[in-house]
Design brief:
Layout (H helix, E strand, L loop, with lengths): L9 E5 L4 H4 L16 H4 L21 H25 L8 E4 L16 H6 L7 E5 L3 E5 L4 H7 L5 E4 L8 H8 L5 E4 L5 E2 L7 E2 L2 H11 L5 E4 L5 H6 L12 E2 L2 H4 L3 H14 L4 E4 L2 H8 L1 E2 L12 E5 L3 E4 L7 H9 L3 E3 L4 H10 L3 E4 L6 H13 L21 E4 L3 H7 L3 H30 L6 H13 L4 E4 L4 E4 L24 E5 L1 E3 L2 E2 L2 E5 L6 H18 L2 E3 L8 H9 L10 E3 L8 E6 L14 E4 L2 E4 L3 E4 L2 E7 L1
Parallel strand pairs: 2-6, 4-5, 6-9, 11-16, 14-15, 16-17
Antiparallel strand pairs: 1-24, 1-30, 2-3, 3-4, 7-8, 10-12, 11-13, 13-14, 18-21, 19-20, 20-23, 21-22, 25-26, 27-30, 28-29
Length: 641
């Protein structure tokens, strides 16, 4: 790592530290892996995208058995919708529409199987989307990464709403159009996310619930918070997977860089400076980062299901105690962290209100159930009869329970990587690069020997190489291994029964990453094992030009990411092309592969400034539906220039 000049007022996007991992495997110029390949001077090989398609090679007719399977799947989905609608008329429910988001109660992008309610009811398995079911209609909103996947997976009972396209209504606008005035729209307030046509994912937490309530009130509709039960769970019944119960592990100080006591001290000082006495933390990666803990409750994400409440003199972790080993228990006790049952968080919110807490709430992430519990308790208790310890003392100034709506300070602190975290990311990328070098060498050899390999077999072989590296924990997301037209599905996930063969005469897009004990990786390459077409060469070249333009960008400190997005797109724009996803996302240090608050995207709503120490991806792409996909991705960190 080069020394960073702290005197400069400019920021540079620096990828040199990760170049050995991303630019060298495979290289764009000469490389031992591709040296003898026809690919070398001609084209593309740096990019993938995600989604799921079921086309084998390009297009083939479906067998009668496949058609029967599809009809049976659609029948099952019909039964699910019918069963769900029957619940609408129950006296304890009484609704005309029900909204089913993608996420869990913590707004997680990746979730445990037991919380995949939207996937269960709709059949659509993408990570972003919202289903809305009325008494006679069913619609699903998702963003441009998942259009093709949703087309494949939704039955004829569902309408696909391509969020972001001109003319596509918002969810609230659609409800206002299709429901008769005065209807009742139900949600589970403990869940929390919608996708709308203004962006990829918007939190349907307390903040979004209130916005939805206001929007649908224009037609006198009422938002109903069904906090007693989740309607999808009622029809899922015994077939619903059990909640995860794996053990929590310690994240060593040599990787974390800062002790938990110092982090808690910093957080308490910050709360005091803004007039708050407590904070409720629901984002799983924020809890893991703050306490230097890691879990395995969610595939690909080293986090555990928990809530955390930090006060001036207390810290309470709400988690199932079966996940806590004696080692972790001793660690938490030494750090002054008290354990509480996971499902007692609403009671704690009520207690905080009774005590007169000034509670910091990130309204964009804390679910509506917690906020409503706090606010309701605050209103229903007489402050004179329910005085709290320090909160109601004359010294504290906290005599009336108040919800203070502000962004979580942990989000930005976590994004600004310290020296130990940067070192861990660099070291994990070096090991990851070694695995990728072995993989590409193997794959090129197999392809040129005429070996038939499926997209799934290729992904499994890459996993085999990675798993032999020191400190390997898991993949950081499901590998996107797409040959030919499957590469155009941005978040493609190959399945054994429906995947394609990796064909030498077609572009192959591979987007993959890993979780190591010291870091998280995410890399995309697009390659061709024969002679690409002129069209493929031009598209790849323009994607590469945009990638390099962003890589070399120098810009003023505190510039928001959307300002830089055009650097990556301008070369494509010159010939009328574009891509339907953001250009860059934050990446956690041995944490979630997608991390906020920073991003590089055409969506100008995110004003988070890019700052020294942040790690972001650089991944422009181009996709021709049913033909090919191209994406080039590396990670870089921001340094002062």
């Amino acid at each position: 790592m080069e020394a960073l000049s702290l005197s400069s007022a400019k920021l540079a996007l620096t990828s040199s530290h990760f170049r050995p991992n991303y630019f060298r495997f495979p290289s764009l110029s000469s490389s031992p892996i591709f040296h003898k390949s026809k690919l070398r001077p001609s084209v593309s090989r740096i990019s993938p995208n995600f989604t799921i398609i079921k086309c084998c090679s390009s297009f083939t007719a479906k067998s009668s058995s496949e058609l029967r399977k599809i009809r049976q799947l659609q029948l099952n989905e019909d039964e699910k919708l019918r069963a769900l609608r029957e619940l609408f008329s129950k006296p304890s429910v009484g609704i005309d529409a029900y909204i089913i988001p993608s996420q869990d109660a913590h707004q997680s992008e990746f979730i445990a199987e037991c919380y995949m309610r939207r996937a269960y009811i709709s059949g659509f398995t993408g990570s972003a989307g919202t289903a809305v079911v009325t008494k006679d209609k069913a619609a699903l909103w998702t963003d441009g990464r998942y259009y093709l996947q949703a087309e494949k997976q939704l039955s004829s009972d569902w309408m696909l709403m391509r969020a972001g396209n001109i003319g596509v209504p918002t969810m609230s606008g659609w409800l206002n159009d299709v429901l008769t005035p005065g209807s009742r729209v139900g949600i589970d307030p403990s869940q929390a996310i919608i996708s709308d046509n203004q962006g990829e994912q918007f939190l349907f937490s307390f903040e979004a619930a209130e916005e939805l309530r206001e929007d649908i009130s224009k037609k006198n509709h009422e938002l109903i918070l069904l906090s007693k039960t989740n309607l999808v769970d009622e029809i899922w019944k015994d077939s619903r997977p059990k909640p995860p119960s794996k053990h929590v592990r310690l994240h060593e100080l040599k990787y974390a860089g800062v002790d938990v006591s110092l982090k808690l001290s910093w957080l308490r000082s910050h709360l005091s400076s803004i007039g708050c006495s407590a904070i409720v933390i629901t984002k799983l990666d924020e809890i893991a980062w703050l306490l230097n803990l890691r879990g395995s409750d969610i595939p690909n994400s080293p986090v555990m299901y928990a809530y955390l409440v930090v006060e001036a003199d207390q810290c309470k972790l709400f988690i199932d105690d079966c996940k806590i080993t004696s080692e972790v228990m001793d660690y938490l006790q030494n750090a002054g962290v008290e354990l509480k049952p996971y499902d007692s968080i609403l009671k704690e919110a009520e207690n905080l209100a009774v005590e007169g807490a000034h509670l910091l709430i990130d309204a964009s992430s804390v679910n509506a159930a917690i906020v409503n519990a706090f606010n309701s308790a605050a209103k229903s208790h007489d402050r004179k009869e329910h005085k709290s310890k320090s909160y109601n003392s004359s010294d504290s100034g906290f005599d009336v329970a108040t919800a203070v709506y502000r962004s979580s300070p942990i989000s930005t602190a976590k994004a600004l990587k310290n020296h130990a975290e940067i070192e861990g990311m660099r070291n994990s990328h070096l090991r990851d690069a070694a695995a990728l070098a072995q993989f590409w060498s193997w794959l090129e050899t197999e392809i040129h020997m005429g070996v038939t390999l499926t997209e799934v077999e290729v992904a499994e072989k890459l996993l085999d190489f990675r798993s032999k590296q020191d400190g390997f924990v898991d993949t950081s997301f499901d590998t996107i291994s797409g040959s030919g037209p499957n590469g155009a599905i941005i978040h493609y996930k190959p399945e054994p029964d429906t995947c394609s063969i990796v064909q030498p005469e077609k572009l192959f897009l591979l987007d993959s990453g890993a979780q190591y004990i010291d870091g998280t990786t995410d890399i995309t390459r697009t390659v061709h094992f024969g002679e690409p077409t002129t069209r493929e060469k031009e598209c790849f070249t323009r994607v590469l030009q945009g990638h390099i333009a962003l890589d070399q960008a120098v810009f003023p400190e505190n510039t928001p990411g959307f300002v830089l997005d055009a650097f990556a797109r301008s070369s494509l724009w010159k010939i009328g092309l574009d891509y339907r996803h953001g250009t860059g996302h934050g990446v956690g240090a041995a944490l979630n592969v997608h991390e906020g608050p920073q991003s590089i995207s055409f969506r100008f709503g995110n004003m988070t400034p890019l700052q020294k120490g942040m790690i972001v991806s650089n991944e422009p792409g181009y996709y021709e539906d049913h033909a090919f996909g191209i994406r080039i991705e590396v990670l870089f960190y921001l340094s002062l220039n």
